[in-house]
Every structure is written in structure tokens, then in C-alpha cells.
Design brief:
The complex is a heterodimer of chains A (about 300) and B (about 280). Chain A is about 75% helix and about 0% strand. By secondary structure, chain A is mostly helical. Chain A has two domains: about 80 residues, no CATH class; about 200 residues, Orthogonal Bundle (MetI-like fold). In chain A, helix 5 runs antiparallel to helix 12 and helix 9 packs antiparallel against helix 12. Chain A is globular, with a radius of gyration of 25 Å. Chain B has a domain of about 180 residues: MetI-like (MetI-like fold), CATH 1.10.3720. The chains are: A mainly alpha (about 300), B mainly alpha (about 280). Strand 1 of chain A pairs parallel with strand 1 of chain B.
């Protein structure tokens, strides 16, 4: 009895509009999750079953109300076995993706916090100009920056090498902006307290700024990882003649023809890292996105 | 805050060098490049490249589609995010799980969604079931004309969460007393949202629109997954044009196309910025 009253009490605190909003958001959340859930579900279907199902998709079966498969007749892990052991095509592309993400994150970790630190905790001539340029670069569409940077990469002899994809991403203006926004808001007292102890600019960065920045660094790393994991334009253009160097994100629509079961299992494997990263970092990511408001 | 320390240039060096090398210098160098004829003689041809690209029907098609798709996605995402953020606010502390679910697709690679998406939109798929349930004719979603719908939807599915989060943080800063007063005056939810909330968060609203719009140029990704290198004319974007020009090594054309596009983007930015300044002179 007491429990039921408590539940009614909780619902009672919502206005009628709130109940409506709750209903809409619940429905929408289900809709948003459906593609992800079904990708994982279909990755456990045996080859015969999923391909027979896909063959029926072109026709419209009016005898059924909703023609959707919910559970496999036989639960299968054959396609995962194929990906990991038998035919390493997917696995190799997945490794490519992981290597790109790793290299880019490493490069960003070396460059971006330092740049953001210099732009946020120092006053020097030209600082505002540099920051303004970074803002402009941030909002320029990729189509605009791509063409000129290809000229540069060609001149440097980097086209069709992994560096063409990695190097420009290491200096991504958005993440410089994001970290700068966070560092600006760190109270000066924190640094000054360190200064009394005779901490210089570099040690202040390592011992004061970096520990305080932990949440935003996590958020930036997670967002940047998702960027790398999903990049398409860069490898398409910069690796035009080197299909073997391309990450999985670009190759999806070319290899998904070889078997629906493997394609679904590959998709599920591809989603998994970002899903785990999101579950771990979600609060930091939300806080990080909120920082991209210009203050 | 450190003043005039020489060390700052040392700290800035790697970042600045990279930005200059891969973004700033190429951007200006490309202007010179786009004015040359690109042959061995490398003669100055003025705006001839621009003229040729401008008259290319595929460029016109790509440019038109890119504008249309981005100006379709951005307002939809903007409005949807605003309404959803408002809904999240009415739920107060219960909103967190919903907000997190809304943001989840933002990190999902859309390439991995391709399979399930085509499944949903094929002729016997779930979407057509819904369409017939509502009493309409079935649609061939993955053919020529209707193709835009699944692509735009995939894009919105993926990107709306980002804008929701931005809006939600701005909404939480609006003073509650404003709503109490409005409720006393008998203003409904709709009036409150668009007459009180929106003017209060105008800078954020502007930012969300700009970001949504700039990001919408990346809809090429979704179009590429569903349509490939040479998709139907409905979803042939500027990026397709540039990629195909790259493949033919016609670099002059690519740079010329990029700068014409940049001019268009900049003009629209300026217009939006000015209209914002005009609308809120008090700020």
C-alpha cells in the first residue's frame, strides 16, 4: 500500500504536460534504440535464415501485419567465428579503424591540450586573432578545407599514405576550442596558489591544469574517437588509390555484399566500442558538449 | 594568468604549426592554385576555372542538393531539439536517462546503421507497414525520388541529440520566476516556449542553428552509404562532385568549387549574424 501511494505521489508531481512529455520521450527513446538493438539481434541469426528473410524484403506480404524477425530459430555464432578466425577481411579493416583512431587520439593528446592552455591562460599579442581563426576554421565545412589541404598533402608527398588521414585530424580546431573553453573557466586562484610554491608555466600545466581538466579530456577523447570511428570523407579522398589502407567505415557498403550474416555481425562489432565508450563517458560528454556554447 | 611569457610561443608551436600547415596556408595557397591552368606551363588564367566549374551541370546539381539538404536538416533539427529540450525540462531530474538516449546515436557510426536502415525502408519494410496503416500508398523509399527521406531521417536520428544537449543547458539557466509570472497571466506551454524561452536563449538558439547547419553539409556520409559514388540526382551532393573530380585529378576544378561554396557559406553566415543583431538590439 505504502509503495503504491509513493508511486502515485511521484507521478502526481508531474503536470499533465509533464506526463505527455514523458510519454513522447519514452516512445522516442524506443524508436531511437530500435536500429541499434536490432543490429545486435540480427548479428546472431544464422546465414540461411537472415538471407532468406532479406530475399523477401522486395515484396510486400499483405497476409502479415508486421513482417519482422524477432528471434532466430537457431542462435548462431558462426558469423563471429568467420570474422575472427576464417576470413579476416573485416577484422583487418576493423584494425585499420582502430589504428587510425589510436594514432589520431595520440596526436591530439600531444598537441591540443598545450595549444588550449596557451590560448586560455596566457596573455600575449595576437591571441585573440589566433582564437578567431580557430573559430572560423571550426565552422568552415569540410568541403571547403579539404581541397586546399589536398594540395598541401600532395606537395608534402603524403597523399595515399596513412599520414594524410592522421596528421590534419591531430590539429582539429573543434577540440582546441572545446578545451580552451574549459580552461578559461578554471579559477585563477588555483594557478596562483601553485605559483606561490614556485611552479612555472609548464609545471603549472602538468600539476594544476591537467588534473582539473580530467572530465573534459575524457569527453573530448570520447567525441574525437567517435569522429575517427565514423570518418568517411577523409579516407575516401586522401586514400583514393589505397583501398587496403582504408578503415572499415568507408568500406562498409562494398563488403556487405558477401554475406548478410557477416555484415550484421560486422556492424555489431563496429558499434560495440563506441557504445561502451558512451556508457562510460556519457556524463562527461554531455558536459563537454555544453561547453561548446560561446561564453 | 601569465603575462608576456616567452614560453607561450613554445607551447603554441606544435599546434600553430599544424594549423598553419594543414588548414591556413593551404586555404590561401589554394586561391593562387585555383587561378592557374594546372598544366605544365602553369599559366595564369584568372577566373576561367571558376567559370568552367560554375557552368558544369554536375556542380550545379551538387551545390543545389547540398543547399537543399542542409537547409532541410538544420531547421528540422533545430526545432525538434528545442521542443525536446523543453520536454526534458518539464521532467526535471527524471530527464537524464532520456537525454542520454537522445545523445547516444551521435556517437554511433552511421555506416554500421546502413544495413538496418535499408531493411526498415525497403518495400516490405516497417516504414511501409506504417505508411499503409495510416492509409497511404506504399513508397519505394530506396529509389530515385523518395531516397532523400531515409537519408535525412538517418542524419536527424544521429545528430539531434547534440542540439538537444546544447538547448537543455541553456534552458536550465532561464529564471523560473519568468514562467511563474507567465502562468499567472495564462500563457500556455506553446506561448511560454516561443515567447519567453526562445528570446531568453537567443544566443544559444543561434549557435545551435549554425552548428546544425554547418554539420548538415556532412550529410554526404549518409548519402554515400546508401547511394555510393554516383547516386541518384536527388542526393548527389557537392562532396560527390569534388570526390569524382579528385578521382580524375582535376584539382583546379576542386579548389574553384570549394571557394565558390565557401563564399556562399560566408554570405549566409553574415546574413544570419546580421539578422540576429537586428532582432536583439538590446543585447
Amino acid at each position: 500500500m505504502a509503495k503504491r501511494r509513493r508511486i502515485r505521489h511521484r507521478l502526481g508531481r508531474l503536470s499533465p504536460g509533464g506526463v505527455l512529455a514523458l510519454a513522447i520521450l519514452v516512445a522516442l527513446s524506443v524508436l531511437i534504440l530500435i536500429p541499434i538493438v536490432f543490429t545486435f539481434l540480427y548479428s546472431f541469426f544464422p546465414k540461411g535464415e537472415i538471407e532468406a528473410y532479406l530475399k523477401t524484403r522486395g515484396s510486400y506480404d499483405t497476409t502479415k501485419w508486421l513482417d519482422v524477425l524477432y528471434a532466430p530459430a537457431v542462435f548462431s555464432l558462426r558469423q563471429y567465428y568467420k570474422i575472427f578466425i576464417e576470413d579476416p577481411t573485416y577484422l583487418r579493416l576493423l584494425c585499420n579503424s582502430a589504428l587510425y583512431a589510436g594514432a589520431i587520439l595520440l596526436g591530439q593528446a600531444l598537441v591540443i591540450p598545450l595549444t588550449a592552455y596557451a590560448l586560455s591562460r596566457f596573455t600575449f599579442r595576437g591571441r585573440d586573432t589566433i582564437f578567431f581563426c580557430i573559430l572560423i576554421l571550426m565552422i568552415l565545412p569540410f568541403q571547403v578545407t579539404m581541397a586546399p589541404s589536398v594540395m598541401m598533402l600532395r606537395w608534402l608527398g603524403l597523399m595515399d599514405t596513412v599520414w594524410a588521414v592522421i596528421l590534419p585530424m591531430c590539429f582539429s580546431p573543434f577540440y582546441i576550442f572545446l578545451l580552451r573553453q574549459f580552461m578559461v573557466s578554471i579559477p585563477n586562484e588555483l594557478l596562483e596558489a601553485g605559483m606561490v610554491d614556485g611552479v612555472g608555466a609548464v609545471r603549472g600545466f602538468v600539476h594544476v591544469i591537467l588534473p582539473v581538466c580530467k572530465p573534459i579530456l575524457g569527453a573530448a577523447a570520447a567525441l574525437s574517437f567517435a569522429d575517427c570511428w565514423n570518418m568517411v570523407e577523409q579516407p575516401l579522398v586522401y586514400l583514393a588509390n589505397r583501398q587496403d589502407l582504408r578503415p572499415l567505415s568507408v568500406m562498409f557498403n562494398q563488403i556487405s555484399t558477401e554475406g548478410a550474416d557477416v555484415a550484421f555481425a560486422g556492424s555489431a562489432l563496429y558499434i560495440l566500442p563506441t557504445l561502451l565508450i558512451y556508457l562510460y563517458f556519457q556524463e562527461d560528454i554531455v558536459a563537454g558538449i555544453q561547453l561548446s556554447e560561446l561564453k | 594568468m601569465f603575462h608576456r611569457k616567452k614560453i607561450v610561443w613554445l607551447l603554441l608551436l606544435p599546434g600553430l604549426a599544424g594549423l598553419l600547415a594543414f588548414y591556413v596556408v593551404p586555404f590561401f595557397g589554394g586561391i593562387y592554385f585555383s587561378l592557374m591552368d594546372g598544366t605544365f606551363a602553369n599559366e595564369f588564367v584568372g577566373l576561367a576555372n571558376y567559370k568552367r566549374v560554375w557552368q558544369n551541370p554536375m556542380f550545379q546539381l551538387g551545390l543545389k542538393n547540398t543547399w537543399e539538404l542542409s537547409l532541410l536538416c538544420a531547421p528540422v533539427i533545430w526545432l525538434l531539439a528545442f521542443l525536446l529540450a523543453g520536454m526534458l525540462k518539464t521532467l526535471r531530474h527524471r530527464a537524464t536517462p532520456f537525454r542520454n538516449i537522445l545523445l547516444l546515436p551521435y556517437l554511433m557510426p552511421s555506416s554500421a546503421m546502413l544495413l538496418i536502415w535499408t531493411l526498415m525502408f525497403d518495400y516490405g519494410g516497417v516504414v511501409n507497414r506504417m505508411v499503409t496503416a495510416m492509409g497511404f500508398e506504399r513508397v519505394l523509399w530506396l529509389e530515385e525520388d523518395a531516397l532523400r527521406f531515409p537519408i535525412v531521417l538517418l542524419y536527424i536520428w544521429k545528430n539531434v541529440g547534440f542540439s538537444v544537449v546544447l538547448f537543455a543547458s541553456a534552458l536550465s539557466a532561464v529564471h523560473p520566476s519568468l514562467y511563474e509570472y507567465a502562468s499567472l497571466e495564462g500563457a500556455g506551454w506553446w506561448t511560454q516556449s516561443f515567447r519567453i524561452t526562445l528570446p531568453q536563449i537567443l544566443p544559444t538558439a543561434f549557435l545551435v542553428f549554425v552548428l546544425a547547419w554547418v554539420n548538415a553539409f556532412k550529410i554526404f556520409k549518409e548519402a554515400y552509404f546508401i547511394g555510393g559514388d554516383y547516386p541518384s540526382t536527388q542526393i548527389y551532393t557537392l562532396q560527390h562532385f569534388m570526390n569524382n573530380k579528385f578521382a580524375k585529378l582535376e584539382y583546379q576544378d576542386v579548389t574553384a568549387a570549394a571557394y565558390m561554396f565557401a563564399v556562399g557559406v560566408m554570405v549566409l553566415f553574415a546574413l544570419m549574424y546580421m539578422s540576429k543583431a537586428v532582432r536583439s538590439p538590446s543585447e
